[in-house]
Write a structure and sequence with these properties.
The complex is a heterotrimer of chains A (about 950), B (about 250) and C (about 290). Chain A is α/β, with parallel strands linked by helices and about 950 residues long. Helices cover about 25% and strands about 15% of the residues of chain A. In chain A, the strands form 10 sheets. Chain A has a 7-stranded mixed sheet, with helices on one face. In chain A, strands 29-33-30-32-31-34 form a 6-stranded mixed barrel. Chain A has a 4-stranded parallel sheet with strand order 11-10-9-21, sandwiched between helices. In chain A, helix 4 (about 125-135) links the parallel strand 6 (about 115-120) and strand 7. The two termini of chain A are about 25 Å apart. Chain B is of the alpha+beta class and about 250 residues long. Helix content of chain B is about 25%, strand content about 20%. Chain B has 8 helices and 11 strands. With about 290 residues, chain C is mainly α. Chain C is globular. Chain C starts with a helix and ends in a 13-residue tail after the last helix. Classes of the chains: A alpha/beta (about 950), B alpha+beta (about 250), C mainly alpha (about 290). Strand 4 of chain B pairs antiparallel with strand 1 of chain C. The complex binds ligand MGD (2 copies), iron/sulfur cluster (5 copies) and molybdenum atom. The site of one iron/sulfur cluster has 13 residues of chain A, from helix 1 and helix 7.
Chain lengths: ~950, ~250, ~290
């Protein structure tokens, strides 16, 4: 009876597997692209790859639909209609380069700063920044200023590296893991894999987040904190731990600046060599911090050179032991119970000190002391934009790092550990460069870490040198630039107008801007003569995005499967804690249209402009394309974009002459290269001699850079000192008070600025966005599979608010901020901070974009919260408009947003409704049956 | 064919850990990606770039909120595909014999060339595990990646379902639930793996591991209390403590 | 459940056709050749059109014949096999009757029995669905059979019997509604059992798996119909199919015109009630989509 059909359980899968790197997000997983009949049949994760070890997220698996999306641009385009309309004419690459050069060459010869070159989701910043430097404009940055510079800069200044891909918890050994304000993060697959490991081992996961979804949904404990108050919460944890004496004193003495002496001016006491001094209890004298055999004091006052000096730890203890930081005093404000804060402090202490790990492995520190064992503290932390994207974000991120240090859990087993080329202290980073000479390159790299007021990008008259006003008194440590201010400043001609705005891979007229509507107006605004206020806009995108409609010239990129790319250690690493690694993309599919990899196009444009480094003495191209550059470019002798397979013989690791077969070697190796950190160099790396030596060998730096972690950040003290009236560079009067309050060299909490500026009775609620795991910003919506998962985005409203406003299923609401109102569908959610509403980020689309139908749900029921967020704070009545950013780094304060909500009439169209743009690529097909040719 | 085998040699299936699933939909897309170019008709999409995009998926992730009194609400991400039931009602209703359960491993499959697209099997399935492909008019369902798990063109370690291989959190496990020595069997034992809608009498092979109890309140502070016992009293007392402690180092 | 036109027509028309066969088989009466021919053709046409329309529901009608293979386990298969047998036997019976002048009682009885079994099989396709608690009850075959018998009787001009049958049908329909309305609740399936999360608290859907247009499961199995709308349709359907025919039958003498009107009314009512039979039926899969 049961005659089963015989089926083929061993069908052929692929003609060939090509191993490259995913680019549906910045996680950069290794992928095995299965090719069949010249088409992509199946994409799976590369098991050998250090980032994802075989797994893939939804976006990664939807690569097929991304690659074959109807929204792909087809050829270079010149605008023919009004800006914003989307009317274009396709042109040749020669014409495109001619136009670009016609606009850019005069700028370079006369006033290079009148080119603003900013890149968004750029994974080739070491190329794009170099290009901008060779062009000579000071106006370059990537998107970090509106993304997570608070996290990045706080990490560098405090630890010598940040969370995300620069380091991660020791997933294999940690026993308690706290994750603050993370929905997805850049390191999304590794975090998921790590969480999976913790679950397997039964470690405790605590999610601190107003919203309980995703990672927070599986957390063993959810701390549904009120947005913007994490700093208070963390400092309360510090308070409780200090009060109980649960801090790692030996660790603090050895690896941090806890014993370093601070003078009354807030600056470190230094010897003649500039070395920080500590008070040595053995000799009862000051000694350089790195001398061997010291017994440094952690408290006590001394009079030295006419001033009273105290160790950092002394200041720190006094500050945080103050009763105002006690759990009882902050809990309510954080929306938490004091008992919860105390219990969590106790659990952290329990884990760190009662579950101490000891590894018997000898290592030597930079003082020359050899340690027989390595002590581990199995508590670890991770945080991202939830604490970073606030105007008090830098200090909150700093507070978290200080907590980590007090627990002795950085760079130790069970704690948080870096990935090479990190850790890397501020000293190993450049300072910002901004000196312009027409016709010549800039004097050095644009972006760096200021050591004090002397590094600000200011003209003698106090005006900003950069179009985005990065490195000014308003945000002195804006280490990633401030891309979110470029369009509004260029439009206002403040500090000066630009001639050409050149952008790459950033949807600036849509989801990556605050005040989206306003930005569209600025991009299309004209002066009295009828000319656009921003005269020329060049843009590179691969798809028909909202931003495309606003450009005058489009340089169409390939998809990620069609181009060479390098994920370089000079840029953002993909390394693991115990290995340095980098990788490439290569054309696993040939483009079927007239598009070019942007990096290649950029180099070719550079050649056309005759930029130094890109042409030889005869004006001939040095690099034909990006692949050529990747192989042959040297940043420092022997050090280039790729670290692996260097030298003639291809054996060079980190250093070595260019190897003409390097790219092929990467391809043969699965698209990446990896080199393991020697065993004795794996922990305590800032002070570990073996690591320092290995890092030099590998070209990470040219001389050992041992350092101590910075509980106390001296550059901040310098800015504060200036604000107090000392020193040559002085801030404008109106900023002094704010600088003094916010530039505290020890982390502080202050109320987010928007909260300070609006009437909280009128705007009682917090409004947030979260990244959906299955979507990458705006570009997931063109993907036929992914858009079925998130085709629109309701506003999730806490049950309290739901009841308060009498909402019912299917209702719509008006959501209003100080800046505007949007009308959106609402959905109730219990597992949400009571005073908070939120939605998925960047699902809403402009009609006509992305080759979607005009009535696509993304345009009718989807919406952007960005319409409510302004790049400036509400007017304070002082005649000034302050930027809605962190006062230290300039990070855009997306999550400071305050709103009110009101029931609206049931709707069918979210508001504001932006008029449609024309699609330069037509619309997609009516149905799909991908893979039909391979099925019976 | 339409009758169920009295016993199967193996009970291959999935074990899905609700305590670990972060709801990322990776398994959903990986499943679509593999299956659209593999066994049977492609998984088509209608109006893929339009107002009502809808396509065939063999695995979908729901998100539920669970609330008990006096505890904060919980969110549970809930992936769902065919459970390869032992008493699969979808098989016995099939008029053509297209639906069948394999004797050797218990996989429930549709022989698409026999399927008339009547939809009865989808009606019979309590779990919504079958979807009719709108372009091909045949019934589609999770095949347990039958064309991967035995596929000799695939390295041995990859001979697992596409969704399992891709799951970043490791929330999906595949194996023989009839084999007490298998990983999946042990997981089910240890973690109290459960059946969905047991009252339907379908005897699902796939099991779900329930979310572990949350530790929002436990362990109580009095257990941990000593850890926070004040060694110090304000900064003054603190420095005294500091000296005493440093002495001991 | 999605009230698909093809299925409504199939069950309604084939039910009527087979119902008529039953009466023609058991009580052929002394009809003239032509009259017999018209009645027999009508029965064959109704059941034939019904069966044909069921093919429109199929993704692959050209393979329909495969549907006959699983009679040992599948009600749909059985229904197909028995329906064909019924048609064949009835055609033979009708042919002998019309051509030969007299019906063969044995064949008639056989055809009637087969017709009844066919209707029963049709009903069992729905009744067997544990997943649709409203259907999963002996009342479903009772309902289908009574519809067939009553409708058949009306068509066959068996006025008195039809009135009794309609009354019985009315009673069963009302009980079926009453039971059906709480069937999902009584089935024991809830969002909590569906998810296994009941021990953690009350479960509700936060996010549907996909936001796009309703997927196959939702269009096919989670048909939404407003309570008020359903109530109105129940009244209309009941009045047309049962109430008015009985009333008219009791008050007036049922002759040609009126008989025709009553039959049409009944048919309209039947289609309405059959539409409701599907539209009101909740599939437990709805629980995964928050449709309690
Ligand atoms: N409300 C709110 N707004 C936010 C945020 C938030 O949390 N809330 N987050 C902010 C943050 S952190 C960020 S980083 C920004 C992100 O915002 P964007 O940087 O604007 O990110 P995308 O929307 O991904 O846009 C990138 C553009 O790159 C294009 N692109 C994709 N692939 C390629 C390619 O291969 N080549 C080229 N040349 N182009 C390509 C896409 O088509 C798209 O137009 O959004 C910001 N906006
Ligand atoms: N799938 C996917 N992955 C991505 C991206 C994407 O678009 N899609 N984008 C990439 C980019 S550019 C970035 S910058 C990263 C960002 O990675 P994440 O930082 O994970 O991104 P967000 O979605 O902004 O998450 C912010 C989280 O913080 C919470 N939050 C908001 N305010 C507060 C607060 O005051 N306190 C606390 N504790 N939590 C708060 C929000 O609820 C949310 O869960 O993700 C990257 N990875
Ligand atoms: S996380 Fe996903 S989208 Fe990002 S690189 Fe990895 S697979 Fe690709
Ligand atoms: S891939 Fe894994 S974690 Fe993601 S939704 Fe599926 S089961 Fe859950
Ligand atoms: S889950 Fe549904 S389709 Fe799968 S075997 Fe069980 S009843 Fe059949
Ligand atoms: S749809 Fe196909 S597999 Fe399902 S019951 Fe009908 S014939 Fe069988
Ligand atoms: S086992 Fe295969 S067919 Fe089934 S859900 Fe997983 S990927 Fe899809
Ligand atoms: Mo970002």
């Amino acid at each position: 009876m049961t005659i089963q059909p015989k089926i083929d359980t061993s069908p052929k899968v692929a003609d060939e597997i090509r191993k490259t790197t995913c680019y549906m997000c910045a996680c950069r997983c290794g992928i095995n692209v299965h090719m069949r009949d010249g088409k992509v049949k199946y994409i799976e994760g590369n098991r050998d790859h250090p980032v994802n070890r075989g797994v893939l997220c939804a976006k990664g698996s939807a690569g097929i639909m991304q690659h074959y999306a109807p929204s792909r641009l087809r050829a270079p385009m010149k605008r023919v209609g009004e800006r914003g309309s989307g009317e274009f004419e396709e042109i040749s690459w020669d014409e495109a380069f001619d136009l670009a050069a016609e606009w850019l060459a005069p700028v370079r010869e006369t006033a290079p700063e009148r080119l603003a070159f900013f890149t968004g989701r750029d994974q080739s910043q070491s190329l794009t920044s170099w290009w901008a430097q060779q062009f000579g404009t000071p106006n370059y940055a990537a998107h970090g200023g509106f993304c997570s510079v608070n996290m990045a800069a706080a990490g560098i200044y405090t630890l010598g590296g940040a969370f995300w891909e620069f380091g991660s918890p020791d997933w294999e050994q940690t026993e308690m893991f706290m994750i603050f304000g993370v929905a997805e993060d850049h390191d999304s697959n590794p975090i998921k894999m790590g969480l999976g490991r913790l679950k397997e081992r039964g470690a405790k996961v605590v999610g601190v987040n107003p919203v309980r979804t995703g990672y927070n949904a599986i957390a063993d404990e959810w701390v549904g904190i009120t947005p913007g108050t994490d700093g208070l919460f963390i400092i309360a944890l510090i308070h409780e731990l200090l009060k109980a004496g649960k801090v790692d004193l030996p660790y603090l003495m050895r690896t941090t600046n806890a014993p370093v002496l601070v003078g009354e001016d807030g600056l470190f006491l230094r010897d003649d060599d500039g070395k920080e001094l500590v008070w040595d209890l053995n000799s009862n004298s000051t000694q350089p911090f790195d001398a061997a055999g010291l017994k440094p004091a952690l408290h006590g006052e001394h009079r030295i050179a006419g001033q009273t000096v105290r160790p950092v730890f002394h200041l720190l203890a006094e500050k945080y032991l103050d009763d105002s930081n006690a759990a009882e005093h902050v809990a309510e404000r954080c929306g938490l119970k004091p008992e919860t804060i105390k219990r969590l402090a106790a659990e952290l202490a329990d884990c760190a000190f009662n579950k101490e790990i000891t590894i018997n492995r000898e290592w030597t520190d930079f003082r020359g002391v050899t340690h027989k064992t390595i002590t581990g503290r199995p508590v670890s932390f991770h945080a991202m934009r939830g604490i970073s994207a606030h105007s008090n974000g830098f200090q909150t991120c700093r507070a978290l790092h200080v907590l980590q240090l007090l627990l002795g859990s950085v760079e130790v087993p069970g704690g948080f550990r870096f990935k090479p080329p990190y850790p890397k202290p501020v000293a190993a980073h450049p300072r910002p460069h901004h000196t312009v000479t027409p016709g010549k390159p800039l004097d050095g790299p644009h972006l760096g870490y200021p050591r004090g007021p002397e590094d600000l990008a200011l003209n003698p008259d106090g005006t900003a040198k950069r179009i985005d006003k990065a490195y000014t008194w308003e945000n002195p440590m804006s280490a990633h630039g401030m891309m979110h201010m470029v369009i509004s400043n260029a439009h206002a001609g403040d500090p000066y107008p630009v001639d050409v705005l050149f952008m790459y891979m950033a949807n600036m007229s849509w989801n990556s801007s605050m005040n989206t509507r306003g930005v569209m107006d600025m991009l299309t605004d004209k002066d009295e003569s009828g000319a656009y206020k921003i005269p020329k806009i060049i843009y590179s995108d691969a798809y028909s995005s909202e931003m495309v409609a606003f450009a005058d010239l489009i340089l169409p990129d390939t998809t990620y499967l069609e181009r060479h790319d390098c994920i370089s250690l000079l840029d953002r690493p993909i390394s693991e804690q115990d290995a340095m690694a980098d990788s490439i993309r290569w054309p696993v599919v040939e483009p079927d249209r007239d598009v070019r990899g942007f990096q290649t196009a950029l180099i070719q444009l550079g050649v056309k402009l005759g930029l130094p480094g890109m042409v030889d003495a005869d004006g001939k191209a040095i690099y034909t394309d990006y692949a050529d550059y990747i192989t042959n470019h040297q940043r420092r002798p022997g050090v280039g974009p790729l670290a692996g397979f260097r030298g003639e013989d291809g054996q060079g690791k980190g250093r070595g002459a260019p190897n003409p077969n390097q790219i092929q070697a990467y391809i043969d190796n699965g698209g990446f290269w990896m080199d393991h950190v020697p065993e004795d160099a794996q922990y305590n790396r800032p002070s570990n001699v073996a690591y320092q030596d290995w890092a030099v060998e590998r070209g990470i730096y040219d001389a050992p850079q041992p350092y101590i972690f910075q509980l106390y950040v001296e550059p901040m003290a310098k800015f504060r000192l200036a604000a107090q009236g000392k020193g040559e560079q002085q801030p404008p009067e109106h900023l002094r008070e704010r600088l003094i309050a916010t530039m505290d060299p020890l982390p502080v909490w202050y109320q987010p600025f928007e909260e300070q500026g609006v009437d909280l009775d009128e705007y009682p609620l917090h409004a947030l966005t979260q990244r959906p795991a299955a979507m990458y910003h705006s570009w997931g919506s063109q993907n036929a599979w992914l858009r079925q998962i998130h085709g629109h985005n309701p506003l999730y409203v806490s049950t309290d608010i739901w009841i308060e406003h009498g909402f019912a299923e299917g209702d719509w609401a008006d959501l209003t901020s100080h800046h505007g109102t949007i009308t959106v569908p609402v959905v109730r959610m219990d597992a949400l901070n009571a005073r908070t509403v939120w939605t998925w980020n960047a699902i809403g689309k402009r009609k006509g974009a992305w080759a979607l139908d005009r009535d696509a749900p993304e345009t009718t029921k989807g919406f952007l919260l960005n319409h409510l967020i302004h790049e400036l704070l509400p007017p304070k009545g002082d005649g000034l408009r302050w930027s809605n950013s962190d006062p230290i780094t300039g990070q855009a304060a997306w999550y400071d947003l305050r709103v009110k909500i009101k029931k609206a009439a049931p709707g069918t169209q979210t508001k504001p409704e932006i008029p449609a743009q024309k699609s330069p690529v037509g619309r997609g097909p009516d149905s799909l049956a991908y893979g039909k040719e391979w099925t019976k | 064919m339409t009758t169920l085998p009295t016993a199967t040699q193996k009970k291959l299936g999935l074990v899905i850990d609700l305590d670990t699933c972060v709801g990322c939909h990776a398994c959903v897309i990986s499943c679509k990606e593999w299956n659209t170019g593999s066994y049977g008709a492609p998984l088509s999409d209608q109006d893929p770039y339009g107002a009502d995009p809808v396509g065939t998926f063999l695995n979908r992730v729901h998100t539920f909120e669970v609330k008990a009194e006096n505890t904060p609400a919980q969110v549970v991400h809930f992936p769902k595909s065919c459970l390869h039931c032992e008493d699969a009602p979808c098989v016995t209703v099939c008029p053509t014999g297209a639906s069948y359960k394999r004797e050797e491993d218990g996989i429930v499959l549709v022989n698409e060339s026999d399927c008339i697209g009547c939809g009865l099997c989808a009606w019979a399935c309590p779990y919504g595990a079958r979807e009719m492909d709108q372009a091909e008019g045949v019934m589609k369902k999770c095949t347990l990646c039958v064309d991967r798990i035995y596929n000799e063109n695939i390295p041995i370690e990859d001979q697992v379902p596409s969704c399992v291989r891709t799951c970043p959190a490791g929330a999906r496990h595949f194996g023989d639930l009839a084999d007490p020595t298998s990983g999946v069997f042990k997981l089910v034992e240890e973690r109290g793996g459960m059946d969905l809608m047991p009252e339907q009498g379908t005897k699902p092979v796939n099991k779900y591991l329930p979310p572990r109890p949350k530790t929002d309140t436990a362990p109580e502070l009095d257990v941990l209390g000593p850890l926070l016992a004040e060694s110090t009293d304000g900064a003054g007392g603190f420095f005294g403590w500091l000296d005493r402690t440093l002495e001991k180092l | 459940m999605h009230p698909a036109k093809s299925i409504i027509l199939f069950t309604a028309l084939s039910g009527l056709g087979f119902g008529l066969m039953i009466w023609l088989g058991i009580v052929p009466g002394d009809k003239g050749t032509w009259v017999a021919a018209v009645f027999c053709l009508m029965a064959l046409a109704l059941s034939g059109i019904g069966l044909l329309s069921s093919l429109f529901h199929l993704g692959h009608p050209e393979r329909a014949v495969k549907a006959l293979s699983q009679w040992r386990s599948s009600w749909l298969s059985r229904e197909g096999v028995v329906a064909i047998a019924t048609m064949v036997v009835f055609t033979l019976y009708a042919a002998i009757w019309v051509l030969g002048g007299t019906p063969v009682a044995l064949l008639g009885w056989l055809a009637a029995a087969l017709a009844a079994v066919t209707v029963y099989c049709t009903a069992m396709i729905y009744t067997q669905m544990k997943t649709v608690p409203r259907w999963n009850s002996p009342l479903t075959p009772a309902l289908f059979l009574l519809f067939a018998l009553a409708g058949g009787a009306l068509l066959a001009g068996k006025v008195t019997i039809s009135l009794w049958l309609l009354a019985a049908l009315g009673a069963v329909q009302i009980v079926q509604w009453m039971q059906g309305d709480k069937a999902l609740g009584d089935s024991g399936s809830t969002m909590e059992t569906a998810t296994g999360l009941g021990n953690l608290g009350t479960v509700r859907l936060l996010e549907s798996p996909h936001t796009g247009g309703p997927n196959y499961l939702l269009t096919e199995m989670v048909y939404k119909i407003g309570r008020k709308h359903a109530q109105k349709l129940r009244i209309i359907g009941f009045a047309l199919a049962i109430g008015l025919p009985v009333l008219l039958g009791l008050v007036f003498e049922v002759k040609h015109m009126l008989a025709g009107i009553i039959v049409l009314m009944h048919l309209a009512g039947l289609l309405t009630l059959r539409w409701l039979f599907f539209a009101e039926a909740e599939h437990v899969v709805g629980l995964y989509y928050g449709k309690r």
